[in-house]
Protein backbone atom coordinates (compact mmCIF):
# COMPACT_ATOMS: atom_id res chain seq x y z
CA UNK A 1 0.00 0.00 0.00
CA UNK A 2 1.15 3.53 -0.68
CA UNK A 3 0.79 5.74 2.40
CA UNK A 4 0.03 9.37 1.53
CA UNK A 5 3.02 11.65 2.10
CA UNK A 6 2.61 15.26 3.31
CA UNK A 7 1.98 16.33 -0.30
CA UNK A 8 -1.16 14.18 -0.74
CA UNK A 9 -2.38 15.25 2.70
CA UNK A 10 -2.03 18.84 1.54
CA UNK A 11 -3.84 18.00 -1.70
CA UNK A 12 -6.76 16.58 0.24
CA UNK A 13 -6.90 19.55 2.62
CA UNK A 14 -6.72 22.04 -0.27
CA UNK A 15 -9.89 20.56 -1.79
CA UNK A 16 -11.90 21.80 1.18
CA UNK A 17 -13.17 25.36 1.51
CA UNK A 18 -12.15 27.49 4.47
CA UNK A 19 -8.98 27.67 6.55
CA UNK A 20 -10.62 26.13 9.64
CA UNK A 21 -11.86 23.10 7.73
CA UNK A 22 -8.54 22.69 5.92
CA UNK A 23 -6.72 22.76 9.25
CA UNK A 24 -9.11 20.19 10.67
CA UNK A 25 -8.53 17.89 7.69
CA UNK A 26 -4.74 18.21 7.95
CA UNK A 27 -4.77 17.41 11.64
CA UNK A 28 -7.15 14.50 11.23
CA UNK A 29 -5.21 12.85 8.42
CA UNK A 30 -1.81 13.37 10.03
CA UNK A 31 -2.64 12.27 13.56
CA UNK A 32 -5.53 9.80 13.37
CA UNK A 33 -4.13 6.28 12.75
CA UNK A 34 -7.48 4.93 11.53
CA UNK A 35 -7.02 6.08 7.94
CA UNK A 36 -3.68 4.37 7.27
CA UNK A 37 -4.64 1.22 9.18
CA UNK A 38 -7.99 0.77 7.46
CA UNK A 39 -6.63 1.63 4.01
CA UNK A 40 -3.91 -1.00 4.45
CA UNK A 41 -6.49 -3.66 5.35
CA UNK A 42 -8.77 -2.77 2.44
CA UNK A 43 -6.02 -2.60 -0.16
CA UNK A 44 -4.52 -5.90 0.99
CA UNK A 45 -7.88 -7.51 0.27
CA UNK A 46 -8.82 -6.17 -3.18
CA UNK A 47 -10.61 -3.30 -4.86
CA UNK A 48 -14.04 -4.41 -3.71
CA UNK A 49 -16.61 -1.64 -3.08
CA UNK A 50 -16.45 0.18 0.25
CA UNK A 51 -19.50 1.28 2.25
CA UNK A 52 -18.43 3.97 4.74
CA UNK A 53 -21.11 4.44 7.41
CA UNK A 54 -21.05 7.73 9.26
CA UNK A 55 -18.65 9.02 6.61
CA UNK A 56 -18.75 12.68 7.63
CA UNK A 57 -16.92 14.66 4.92
CA UNK A 58 -15.71 11.51 3.18
CA UNK A 59 -12.10 11.73 4.37
CA UNK A 60 -11.65 7.96 4.25
CA UNK A 61 -12.72 7.95 0.61
CA UNK A 62 -10.26 10.74 -0.19
CA UNK A 63 -7.48 8.86 1.61
CA UNK A 64 -8.28 5.63 -0.22
CA UNK A 65 -8.06 7.38 -3.58
CA UNK A 66 -4.66 8.81 -2.64
CA UNK A 67 -3.54 5.29 -1.68
CA UNK A 68 -4.57 3.89 -5.05
CA UNK A 69 -7.96 2.30 -4.28
CA UNK A 70 -10.08 2.52 -7.44
CA UNK A 71 -13.12 0.56 -6.30
CA UNK A 72 -16.55 2.09 -5.71
CA UNK A 73 -16.92 4.16 -2.55
CA UNK A 74 -20.29 4.97 -0.99
CA UNK A 75 -20.39 7.14 2.13
CA UNK A 76 -23.54 7.50 4.24
CA UNK A 77 -24.08 10.25 6.82
CA UNK A 78 -26.98 12.18 8.37
CA UNK A 79 -25.21 15.54 8.62
CA UNK A 80 -25.97 17.69 5.54
CA UNK A 81 -23.24 20.21 6.42
CA UNK A 82 -20.48 17.62 6.32
CA UNK A 83 -21.90 15.98 3.20
CA UNK A 84 -22.01 19.30 1.33
CA UNK A 85 -18.39 20.02 2.26
CA UNK A 86 -17.33 16.51 1.28
CA UNK A 87 -19.12 16.55 -2.06
CA UNK A 88 -17.58 19.88 -3.02
CA UNK A 89 -14.12 18.64 -2.04
CA UNK A 90 -14.50 15.39 -3.98
CA UNK A 91 -16.10 16.89 -7.11
CA UNK A 92 -12.97 16.49 -9.27
CA UNK A 93 -11.91 13.04 -8.02
CA UNK A 94 -11.89 10.10 -10.43
CA UNK A 95 -13.15 7.51 -9.75
CA UNK A 96 -15.87 9.56 -8.08
CA UNK A 97 -16.86 9.30 -4.44
CA UNK A 98 -20.57 9.01 -3.70
CA UNK A 99 -21.62 10.76 -0.49
CA UNK A 100 -25.26 10.16 0.35
CA UNK A 101 -27.58 11.42 3.07
CA UNK A 102 -29.00 8.48 4.96
CA UNK A 103 -29.89 6.77 8.20
CA UNK A 104 -27.63 4.06 9.61
CA UNK A 105 -30.76 2.12 10.53
CA UNK A 106 -31.87 1.89 6.88
CA UNK A 107 -28.84 0.82 4.85
CA UNK A 108 -28.88 0.67 1.04
CA UNK A 109 -28.39 -2.50 -0.95
CA UNK A 110 -24.68 -3.22 -1.08
CA UNK A 111 -22.06 -5.96 -1.26
CA UNK A 112 -18.45 -5.35 -0.25
CA UNK A 113 -16.38 -4.05 2.64
CA UNK A 114 -18.19 -2.09 5.35
CA UNK A 115 -16.50 0.57 7.48
CA UNK A 116 -17.98 2.09 10.62
CA UNK A 117 -15.73 4.81 12.08
CA UNK A 118 -16.67 6.36 15.43
CA UNK A 119 -20.40 6.01 14.81
CA UNK A 120 -21.61 2.90 16.61
CA UNK A 121 -21.79 4.41 20.10
CA UNK A 122 -24.20 7.12 18.94
CA UNK A 123 -26.89 4.42 18.77
CA UNK A 124 -28.65 2.71 21.65
CA UNK A 125 -27.88 -0.95 22.30
CA UNK A 126 -30.76 -2.48 20.32
CA UNK A 127 -30.15 -0.31 17.20
CA UNK A 128 -26.45 -1.18 17.47
CA UNK A 129 -27.30 -4.87 17.24
CA UNK A 130 -29.61 -4.23 14.28
CA UNK A 131 -26.91 -2.22 12.49
CA UNK A 132 -24.30 -4.92 13.01
CA UNK A 133 -26.74 -7.48 11.59
CA UNK A 134 -27.37 -5.28 8.54
CA UNK A 135 -23.62 -4.83 8.04
CA UNK A 136 -23.01 -8.57 8.25
CA UNK A 137 -25.64 -9.17 5.56
CA UNK A 138 -23.66 -6.96 3.17
CA UNK A 139 -20.38 -8.85 3.51
CA UNK A 140 -19.40 -11.19 0.71
CA UNK A 141 -16.68 -13.84 0.77
CA UNK A 142 -13.43 -12.16 1.81
CA UNK A 143 -15.11 -8.85 2.71
CA UNK A 144 -14.43 -7.22 6.06
CA UNK A 145 -16.43 -5.21 8.54
CA UNK A 146 -14.05 -2.63 10.04
CA UNK A 147 -15.30 -0.86 13.15
CA UNK A 148 -13.42 1.85 15.00
CA UNK A 149 -15.19 2.46 18.28
CA UNK A 150 -14.60 3.70 21.78
CA UNK A 151 -14.97 0.79 24.20
CA UNK A 152 -16.20 0.99 27.77
CA UNK A 153 -13.66 -0.02 30.41
CA UNK A 154 -11.98 1.29 33.55
CA UNK A 155 -9.07 3.04 31.81
CA UNK A 156 -8.09 6.72 31.99
CA UNK A 157 -8.44 6.80 28.21
CA UNK A 158 -12.12 5.95 28.55
CA UNK A 159 -12.69 8.79 31.02
CA UNK A 160 -11.00 11.27 28.66
CA UNK A 161 -13.06 9.97 25.76
CA UNK A 162 -16.27 10.48 27.75
CA UNK A 163 -15.31 14.10 28.34
CA UNK A 164 -14.46 14.62 24.66
CA UNK A 165 -17.82 13.19 23.60
CA UNK A 166 -19.65 15.67 25.85
CA UNK A 167 -17.63 18.56 24.41
CA UNK A 168 -18.27 17.49 20.80
CA UNK A 169 -22.02 17.31 21.41
CA UNK A 170 -22.09 20.64 23.27
CA UNK A 171 -20.16 22.40 20.49
CA UNK A 172 -22.55 21.18 17.80
CA UNK A 173 -19.86 19.35 15.82
CA UNK A 174 -21.70 16.09 16.58
CA UNK A 175 -25.46 16.07 16.13
CA UNK A 176 -26.00 13.80 19.12
CA UNK A 177 -24.17 12.50 22.17
CA UNK A 178 -23.16 8.92 22.90
CA UNK A 179 -26.08 6.60 23.66
CA UNK A 180 -24.43 3.26 24.42
CA UNK A 181 -20.69 2.57 24.57
CA UNK A 182 -20.15 -1.20 24.41
CA UNK A 183 -17.43 -3.21 26.06
CA UNK A 184 -15.02 -5.12 23.86
CA UNK A 185 -16.51 -8.44 24.95
CA UNK A 186 -20.04 -7.26 24.22
CA UNK A 187 -19.15 -6.15 20.70
CA UNK A 188 -17.27 -9.37 19.96
CA UNK A 189 -20.22 -11.43 21.19
CA UNK A 190 -22.63 -9.54 18.92
CA UNK A 191 -20.41 -10.21 15.90
CA UNK A 192 -19.90 -13.87 16.81
CA UNK A 193 -23.67 -14.34 17.09
CA UNK A 194 -23.91 -13.16 13.47
CA UNK A 195 -21.49 -15.84 12.30
CA UNK A 196 -18.51 -13.48 12.12
CA UNK A 197 -15.01 -14.02 13.35
CA UNK A 198 -13.53 -11.08 15.21
CA UNK A 199 -10.17 -9.57 16.07
CA UNK A 200 -9.61 -6.47 18.19
CA UNK A 201 -6.65 -4.12 18.60
CA UNK A 202 -6.00 -0.66 20.08
CA UNK A 203 -6.23 2.18 17.56
CA UNK A 204 -5.57 5.31 19.57
CA UNK A 205 -2.19 6.14 18.06
CA UNK A 206 -0.88 9.33 19.70
CA UNK A 207 -4.32 10.43 20.85
CA UNK A 208 -5.55 10.03 24.45
CA UNK A 209 -8.84 8.44 23.36
CA UNK A 210 -9.94 4.86 24.06
CA UNK A 211 -10.35 3.93 20.40
CA UNK A 212 -10.19 0.32 19.19
CA UNK A 213 -10.31 -1.37 15.81
CA UNK A 214 -12.64 -4.35 15.51
CA UNK A 215 -12.18 -6.43 12.35
CA UNK A 216 -14.95 -8.92 11.58
CA UNK A 217 -15.33 -11.33 8.68
CA UNK A 218 -17.63 -14.19 7.86
CA UNK A 219 -16.52 -17.57 9.13
CA UNK A 220 -16.30 -20.26 6.42
CA UNK A 221 -19.38 -22.45 6.17
Automatic annotation (TrEMBL):
InterPro entries: Methyltransf_25, SAM-dependent_MTases_sf
Pfam families given in the database record: Methyltransf_25
Domain Methyltransferase: 50-139
Superkingdom classification of source: Bacteria
Name this polypeptide is given: Methyltransferase domain-containing protein
Amino acid sequence: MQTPSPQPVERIAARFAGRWRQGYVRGKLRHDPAFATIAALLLQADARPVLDLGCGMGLLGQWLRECGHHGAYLGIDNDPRKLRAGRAAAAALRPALELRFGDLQALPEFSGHVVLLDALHYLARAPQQALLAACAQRLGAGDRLLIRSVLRDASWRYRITQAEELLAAASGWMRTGAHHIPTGAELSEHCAALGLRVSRQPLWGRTPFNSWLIVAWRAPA
